[in-house]
UniProtKB/TrEMBL annotation:
Similarity-based family: Belongs to the RimM family.
Annotated localization: Cytoplasm
Positions of the Ribosome maturation factor RimM PRC barrel domain: 113-180
Source species of the chain: Catenulispora pinistramenti
Main location: cytoplasm
Tagged with keyword rRNA processing: yes
Function: An accessory protein needed during the final step in the assembly of 30S ribosomal subunit, possibly for assembly of the head region. Essential for efficient processing of 16S rRNA. May be needed both before and after RbfA during the maturation of 16S rRNA. It has affinity for free ribosomal 30S subunits but not for 70S ribosomes.
Protein name: Ribosome maturation factor RimM
Entry note about domains: The PRC barrel domain binds ribosomal protein uS19.
Annotated keywords: Chaperone, Cytoplasm, Ribosome biogenesis, rRNA processing
HAMAP family per UniProt: Ribosome_mat_RimM (MF_00014)
Residues covered by the RimM N-terminal domain: 18-98
Assembly information from the UniProt record: Binds ribosomal protein uS19.
Amino acid sequence: MSPEADTPSGRPEALRLVVGRIGRAHGIRGQATVEVRTDDPDLRFAPGSRLLTEPAERGPLVVSDMRFHSGILLLSFEGVADRNAVEALRNTILVVEADPDETPDDPDEYYDHQLVGLPVELADGNVLGEIADLLHLPGQDVLAVKRPAGPEVLIPFIKQFVPTVDVAGGRVVVDPPAGLLDLDSVE
């Protein structure tokens, strides 16, 4: 069932948002390092938070403790008492269910589902294509734009190259650096 599908009550189904990935164990008391994939870790990983998992059979997990150590998020989960139990959870994706109408507090932040499918225009008004995906790379986020003619183009998701994101108006305006759109012609 797609995230946009309605439930029998007529309300949109909750969206599943990836918020992290469990890494190595930290210490011997069942703490896990977590690769954060959310802009609001204090909310998503607050003690008592229930996190779904991928694969599903590893969860759900309930956060019992959260802290940052040298810039790394450390989580403890109810029922996960030692290093071996954490290692068994390594590479587990952490997921939360969110209201599809929920939006980030910061007006310059967006959830992936808000952007995927939006038309993309160049600064001169010409249509470039539509957003096929938002890639969260280590250096920065990148928009993957599917074009009607030509290969997909990747545009760094920074204000300099993406000056306008109008979710309500249903469009994104990009001003890519010179030559970026011509890379498909290079052999």
